């Protein structure tokens, strides 16, 4: 990595810098001419110099030069103009120069901006590229938040500086020198005064700014440390809550913020002191010009035009000079930032870039043995984890690695998966060191899974297929506009040193998963999901999801058949009372009062409970049917019963799980509200109080809450109001509320609700699990299981997969490894979060599943249960970092050794 920022910029933008410097040099000509014109205008047409007689004229735009070897050459003899005409002509020329100078500045600044953005893109990519090539051990020493902050924020000024690195000193220095030279030409002493002030500014100000640089460096370091600390708090929030250390963290953050405040306050004080001195020096010069220049003009040693031109020229001198001083400060500041980036990212040894080169061609199978020779591994502290282990694992062999925690078994598996690098010794395949093999081989032909999991923010499917996305397999189809846009982006990427790989391509290697394309990919995925016992979890996610019928057409078409099949199945099994179907003419006792009243679903987020309750039509319906007072009275009784029963219970009491209409925190609120409304009628309550009480009745379900509040009369009244609601519903509401219909699919309802078309009876034990099991069988029977599974695979797993449970994450991690159909599978206690029975079952499934259809990959498994080793060809027993015993199950189980102790 280049140590000097200036050299780095010059190396990557040399041709562009030379071009823009040439443009800057060309811009100095009209810039100088714009200083001389005011003098000509004042002395000539305005004061009359050269226009002494009536009707006098002067030559305008006479262009002639004395050229070497050629002599005098006249290009244009000029125009004869009178005093007024000359004034207008010179003024127009001045205006033209102003426009030309502005266009030069516009082009230079735009070019600088584009150059800077390209360089920022280049350096960010190179830094991320280096992160991808860091040795594994380095990630244990750095905080991810600090690395991200440096790449995102700290290199940002480098992009802006790139365009200014060589152009600004040339442009600003050229403008300052041009203005200063023009002043000296007009009057030597005034020029010396300006030069003296400029010299003081150029010497004093940069020296004072050294303190600013030091404070800026401290501010940057403390801000980066704060970012890393905040990242630690977010990642360790469970540990903080579990140990009651939130106030310790508050104290730590307050201390860091205090340090940052102190640094920034000092920075501001020093910054504005420097600014004050700089501005003072800049304002002293006009004072001297007015005083001394005015005196010289009075003495006749300086004409008025020259004085005006000098003052006009000096007006343009402080600007470039100040910007030049600012540039020098930015240069030093950015160099400091770059030096810190260099120190953070200049890590040795980096993974060779050739190891991560793109490989689009299929990779051949690994048919040679995995040979471990004198392998030694240590942790960060130098403690030996594995000590001189040698072993050979054949391509089709299944090997169980057994040993207590800390025995070295886990570290040995990590070395086989290239998660750690050996201190000494080698791991080779066909004589080639494992670390020298391209990742296109190891990442496709060797699969590694451990208990540590990580998933990127996205769908479950994108994370499951992540191990198949090695290279773009097919090019996307673009229309003409998209093709031009992609071509432009590719050209810009190439100029910035970025790869031109198209993210919109299809990156999934379907053949590696045993599929021919996206059409039959689910058929290849499903056996893997079944093997790790996660299919039911994904099915449950699908049942809770809404369905886009434009994509999943078959489900929308078959939903009515599914409902009928479910009813028939429940009737056949004597479970027809387990689901109470929706009936427009009857009250559904297993649904809430609100669901019964609405008899449909709202299209969220366009329509919510609050918006519906505030709608004039809904409020009018309540008044006309009298439901307002009925549900208000019902809500009061619910509140009284809930407060009476639960006000003495602690907030974490399990009884609160049964309260769908009120939380433990709501109890005191409603307790106070009941006291306030005790002797007041419905009409006397405020709209907010009525809403708070009626809301309770909307969530009430008689079989679940059992307060005995729903009478036959009230249920009939709700059904009648429902009919009236849908009969006269206005168009704006009809678009946002989908009424339940037994003959069609309801897109805004979940898949579970669509298939049930009713509610599960609360009185039935394990009713929900039984229904889910039956639904799975029905989906299979109607050949819809894959379609439903694909809906579950669209579930967003959240940041780091945190919307999934730990058990689900470990299962998914194992499935991702299995889907690659590698030659070597290395499993490092991958299911530690699961109970032993489920672990055993999944292990059996995988061993049997991977060795079907003539495909027999090598399996290396660090087992938590030594008894499972019976399924493997060979057992490696680790103890205290060494290979204590090796052999097959019958040999080691009969031998009075350590393995027999683990079995007992």
Automatic annotation (TrEMBL):
GO terms for cellular component: plasma membrane. GO terms for molecular function: ABC-type transporter activity; ATP binding; ATP hydrolysis activity; ATPase-coupled lipid transmembrane transporter activity. PROSITE patterns: ABC_TM1F, ABC_TRANSPORTER_2. Keywords: ATP-binding, Membrane, Nucleotide-binding, Transmembrane, Transmembrane helix. Gene3D superfamilies: ABC transporter type 1, transmembrane domain, P-loop containing nucleotide triphosphate hydrolases. PANTHER family: ATP-BINDING CASSETTE SUB-FAMILY B (PTHR24221), HAEMOLYSIN SECRETION ATP-BINDING PROTEIN (PTHR24221:SF646). The lineage of its organism: Bacteria, Pseudomonadati, Pseudomonadota, Alphaproteobacteria, Hyphomicrobiales. It is found in: Cell membrane. The chain crosses the membrane at residues 15-33, 87-108, 176-205, 280-298. InterPro entries: ABC1_TM_dom, ABC1_TM_sf, ABC_transporter-like_ATP-bd, P-loop_NTPase, Type_1_exporter. This is ATP-binding cassette domain-containing protein. It is a multi-pass membrane protein. Residues 370-902 form the ABC transporter domain. Residues 75-326 form the ABC transmembrane type-1 domain.
């Amino acid at each position: 990595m280049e140590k000097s920022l200036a050299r780095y910029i010059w190396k990557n933008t040399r041709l562009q810098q030379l071009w823009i410097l040439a443009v800057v040099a060309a811009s100095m000509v009209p810039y100088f001419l714009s200083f001389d014109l005011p003098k000509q205008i004042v002395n000539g047409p305005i004061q009359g110099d050269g226009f002494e007689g009536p009707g006098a004229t002067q030559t305008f735009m006479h262009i002639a030069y004395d050229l070497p070897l050629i002599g005098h050459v006249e290009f244009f003899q000029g125009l004869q103009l009178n005093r007024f005409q000359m004034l207008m002509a010179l003024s127009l020329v001045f205006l033209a120069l102003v426009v030309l100078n502005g266009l030069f500045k516009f082009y230079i600044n735009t070019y600088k901006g584009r150059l800077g953005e390209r360089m920022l893109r280049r350096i960010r990519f190179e830094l991320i590229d280096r992160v991808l090539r860091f040795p594994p051990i380095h990630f244990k020493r750095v905080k991810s938040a600090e690395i991200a902050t440096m790449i995102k924020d700290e290199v940002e000024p480098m992009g802006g500086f790139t365009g200014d690195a060589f152009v600004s000193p040339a442009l600003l220095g050229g403008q300052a020198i041009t203005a200063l030279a023009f002043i000296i030409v007009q009057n030597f002493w005034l020029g010396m005064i300006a030069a003296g002030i400029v010299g003081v500014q150029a010497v004093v100000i940069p020296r004072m700014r050294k303190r600013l640089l030091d404070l800026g460096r401290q501010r940057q370091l403390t801000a980066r440390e704060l970012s890393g600390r905040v990242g630690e708090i977010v990642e360790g929030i469970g540990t903080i809550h579990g140990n009651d250390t939130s106030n310790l963290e508050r104290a730590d953050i307050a201390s860091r913020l205090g340090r940052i405040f102190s640094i920034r306050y000092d920075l501001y004080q020093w910054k504005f002191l420097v600014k004050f001195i700089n501005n003072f020096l800049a304002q002293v010069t006009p004072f001297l010009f007015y005083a001394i220049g005015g005196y010289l003009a009075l003495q006749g040693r300086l004409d008025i035009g020259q004085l005006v031109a000098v003052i006009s020229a000096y007006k343009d001198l402080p600007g470039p000079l100040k910007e030049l001083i600012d540039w020098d400060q930015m240069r030093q500041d950015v160099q400091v930032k770059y030096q810190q980036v260099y120190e953070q990212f200049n890590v040795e040894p980096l993974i060779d870039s050739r190891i991560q080169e793109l490989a689009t061609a299929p990779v051949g199978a690994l048919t040679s043995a995995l040979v471990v020779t004198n392998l030694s591994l240590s942790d960060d502290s130098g403690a030996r984890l594995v000590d001189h282990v040698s072993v050979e694992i054949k391509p089709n062999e299944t090997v169980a690695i057994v040993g207590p925690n800390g025995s070295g078994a886990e570290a040995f598996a990590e070395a086989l998966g290239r998660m750690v690098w050996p201190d000494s010794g080698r791991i080779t395949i066909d004589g080639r060191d494992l670390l020298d093999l391209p990742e296109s081989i190891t990442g496709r032909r060797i699969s590694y899974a451990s208990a540590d999991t990580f998933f990127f923010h996205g769908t479950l499917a994108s994370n499951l297929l992540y191990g198949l996305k090695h290279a773009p397999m097919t090019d996307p189809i673009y229309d003409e506009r998209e093709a031009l846009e992609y071509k432009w982006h590719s050209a810009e990427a190439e100029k910035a040193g970025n790869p031109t790989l198209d993210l919109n391509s299809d990156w999934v290697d379907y053949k590696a998963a045993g599929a021919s394309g996206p059409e039959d990919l689910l058929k290849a995925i499903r056996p893997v999901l079944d093997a790790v016992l996660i299919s039911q979890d994904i099915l449950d996610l699908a049942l809770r999801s809404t369905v886009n019928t434009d994509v999943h057409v078959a489900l929308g078409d078959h939903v009515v058949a599914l409902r009928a099949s479910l009813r028939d199945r429940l009737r056949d099994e004597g479970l027809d009372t387990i689901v109470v179907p929706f009936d427009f003419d009857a009250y559904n006792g297993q649904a809430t009062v609100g669901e019964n009243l609405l008899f449909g679903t709202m299209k969220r987020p366009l329509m919510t409970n609050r918006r519906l309750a505030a709608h004039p039509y809904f409020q009018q319906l309540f008044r006309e049917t009298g439901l307002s007072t009925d549900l208000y009275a019902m809500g009061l009784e619910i509140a009284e019963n809930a407060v009476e029963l639960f006000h003495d219970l602690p907030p974490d009491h399990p009884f609160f799980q049964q309260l769908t209409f009120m939380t433990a925190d709501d109890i005191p609120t409603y307790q106070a509200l009941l006291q306030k409304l005790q002797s007041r009628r419905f009409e006397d309550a405020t709209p907010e109080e009525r809403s708070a009480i009626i809301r309770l009745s909307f969530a009430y379900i008689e079989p679940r809450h059992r307060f005995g509040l729903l009478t036959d009369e009230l249920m009939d009244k709700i059904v009648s109001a429902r009919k009236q609601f849908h009969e006269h519903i206005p168009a704006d509401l009809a678009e946002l509320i989908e009424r339940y219909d037994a003959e069609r699919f309801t897109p805004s309802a979940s898949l579970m609700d669509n298939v049930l078309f009713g509610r599960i009876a609360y009185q039935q034990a394990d009713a929900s699990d039984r229904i889910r099991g039956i639904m799975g069988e029905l989906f299979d029977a109607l050949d819809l299981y894959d379609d439903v599974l694909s809906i579950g695979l669209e579930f967003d797993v959240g940041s780091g997969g945190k919307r999934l449970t730990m058990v689900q994450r470990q299962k998914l991690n194992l499935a991702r490894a299995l889907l690659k159909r590698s030659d070597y599978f290395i499993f490092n206690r991958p299911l530690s979060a699961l109970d032993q029975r489920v672990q055993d079952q999944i292990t059996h499934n995988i061993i049997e599943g991977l060795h079907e259809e003539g495909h027999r990959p090598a399996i290396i498994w660090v087992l938590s249960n030594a008894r499972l080793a019976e399924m493997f060809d060979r057992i490696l027993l680790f103890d205290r970092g060494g290979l204590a015993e090796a052999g097959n199950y019958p040999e080691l189980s009969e031998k009075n050794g350590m393995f027999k102790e683990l079995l007992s």
